[in-house]
Amino acid sequence: MEPEVREFLQRISLSLGIGILWLILNSTFGIMLDYAFIYDHISTGNIIFYVWFLASLLFMIRLYRKLWKGRL
Fold it and tell me: What is the number of structural domains in the chain?
């Protein structure tokens, strides 16, 4: 396989792997453990979950940008 094609496929697989891992973690903690839902009042778990969600989303976007610009 040519090196350019191999590098491209590695970028795709790394992007998919990171995205799927991010989705699994956030849906597990958010939906299955009930931290994403606010019922009567905002709890500490809700705040920690949403801070984590936004921080990890920004980190993932930054990582994707570095990966696809070829600096990683």
Answer: 1
